[in-house]
User: Fold this.
Amino acid sequence: MSVEAGPQAHRRAAELWDTLSGAELLQAMADGRFPEISDVNRHIGQVLTRAVPGRVDISWTPSEILCNPGGTVHGGYIAMILDNAVCLAAASTGERFVPMLTLNLNVDYLRAVRADETYTVAGTCVHPGRTRMYSTATVDDADGRPVARASASVVPNKAFAR
Assistant:
C-alpha cells in the first residue's frame, strides 16, 4: 500500500502523528498508511515490516551501491541498519512516536553481508527508561544465522517532544 499525497493526506498523517502510540505509528509506516520519516530507508534497502511495543522487524535487502571494494556490504551500512533497529525499537515503546538519538552503539560483525540478499533485522528495547533506553538488534541471513549484532543506549530526540 502506498501513502497518499496532497492536503487531505497530510491532515490524515498529522492526525496519526498526534494520536497513535509509537508502535502504532511504526506499524502504520509498515502498512503504508504513514509516510517514511526519511529517504535513507529506501537508499539502504530497509523496509519496516512489523512493530509492537518494544520490538520492530525490518526486511533489509542491501544493494551493490553499499558494497566496499572487497564486494561485501560496508560495515558502516550494517551499523546503520542496526542503529535504525535499536532506535525504532525504543521509539515503539512510547505513548507517542518520538525519534531517538543514539548515545552509543556497539556492533559485532559475525559474517559477511552480501548485496541483493534479503536479511531480517530485529530490534528489541530491553530497557524502556524515561530518559535513557537500552536496545539490542540482530541481522540474520535467510538461513536464520546471525551476521551482525548490536547493543545501544538511546534517548528521545527532544526536538520532537509534544
Observations:
- The mean pLDDT is 94.
